[in-house]
Structure formats: C-alpha cells, structure tokens
Structure prediction request, 320 residues.
Amino acid sequence: MSDNVNARTLRRLFPTRSAVLRDVLATAEKVLNHDVNVLILGESGVGKDYLAEALHRCGNRAENKFVRIDCANIPPDIFESELFGYERGAFTDAQTRKVGRMELAHRGTLYLDEVGALTPPLQAKLLRVVQERKFSRLGGNQVLDIDARFLSSSNIPLDELLESGLFRKDLFYRLNVITLTIPPLRQRRSDIPELAAKFLDETARHLKKRLRGFDEAVVDLLTDHSWPGNLRELRHVIERAAILEEGEVITQASLPFENFVDASHFVASGLEQRWTLEELEKRYIREILRQTSGNYSKTANILGINRKTLLEKRKRYELD
Prediction:
C-alpha cells in the first residue's frame, strides 16, 4: 500500500475529534513504512496494544506476523525461553526444540508490551538483540538473524524508571527512537460519545439485541465521567448497560450506580448529615481510591497532591 492509503487506514482505525490525539496519529503516519523503533506510552486502558497492532497492519510488514510478548506477566525465569526459544535438552523439561517469539517475528513486528517490567538482566539480553539483530536459542550454538521491527509500550514513563536506575539508558535510547503518547480519555472527552456508540453497536450485534443509542442524560454522564480505566472501563460499562437494558435506548438505570453517583447527591448527603471537612475529605479520597482500584499514584494525581501526602492521609483516615 502507498503511504497515503496506509495513513487513511490508520485514521479509520483511530477516528478522533481530539486535537491532541490527532497530533499523535500524525506522527504515527510518518513512521508507518519506516522500520524505526517506536515506544508507545499511556495510562492503562488507553489503547496502546491497539495502536501497536494498527502500526503493524498499516505498515510495510503487514503481510508478516505481529508477535506480542507480555513483559509484565511472563515470569523472569522463563522469559528467555519464551523470547529466544530453546533446543532439545537445553534444560530438564526441554524434550523438543521450541521456536521463540523472536524467531516467529522474523520479517514482521515484535511488540514488547509493558517493557518497563523487565528486570535489568533481561534488559541486557534484549539490548544485545536490538543492537546486533542476532540471537541463539537456549542451549544452541547456531546464531540466527532477526529482521523485525521493534514496538514497545509502557504505562509508566520510562524516564521515571531511568532516574531510579530500574531501566537501562542504552536500551531506552534504542527503543525510544519515536515516542507516541496516547492521551487518557479524560483529556479527549469529545471522543467519548462516538466511542460509546461504537462499543454499543459491537455489543448489540454480539448479544443480538436491538439497541438504538443512549438517553441524552446518559451521554452527559459518560462525557463527564473521569474514566480512570480509560477505554477498557468505558467498554465494560457499555457492555454491562447493554446486557441490563430492557428497552432499545440505554438509560441511566442501566449504568453502574456506584460509578456514576451525581456529585450533587454526594454534597447533599454531607449537608444533611453535617459532615465535617475532614469527613468530606475522607469520603472523597476513599471514592477516588475505589475508582482507581487502589492505585495511589493515580489517585494522588487526580487529587492534586503528592503520593507521600496521600499515604499520610490514608494512615490518618485508616483507608485500607
């Protein structure tokens, strides 16, 4: 495909009204047909995996394999065998030869999801492959060439890991030739109605239900919500509403009440029960912690305080 066709395909896969996201996609379009390494950053649930697959599907390696390796969920002691493969007899349970993810990605794309989770020793082994484009299976002497594009992602800015010494600078510079940072959903609220409609259409077809859209009040609630879980949370909320809704239009009754409590009701309860400011703060912090699934860094960011202050308040208010 030509560059223009590839760019149009990428825009179709990532429709957006957000100027911030459009800028990110404009950069992505420029590297579609170049084998430059790309680092994709963004909070959990923003669509990093989806963008990585889109870069592959719209690029010059689309006819070959897209191979994903989940750096956060593969135990360190088997990561090398997953990545490089092994020869028969390499270790006790190696009864046959196994082809690793690296070999499978030859002439295609290798996507390192949450690369920041790798231990320093594994980072060193990965660095060698990225630099030399050569590797060997565990227990083998044959040197194999690897012709693959490297895409990687992280929900933690890698420069923070660099400062703490948890990520190698040389590997960072190799992987971070081009950085694409996907903004969280709360920073592109104009996209929420269209995304919600897309998820509803997909879910309705799967459930074989007739669902025509959303009540106007629901659209307002969806747009105003902070979405700490980003696209993943939005999709789950829409799927739940589609299952529970008995009519053809999604109403407020089908939304998870605990996620969409009207702020005015929260304040009214405080006035009625004569909460002190301390009690109001305690309840508000507890609610934000619940919405972020206990993520203290994300909660502190939403509250506009540092993590240490949040931990002190947690201790004072006994928020376990």
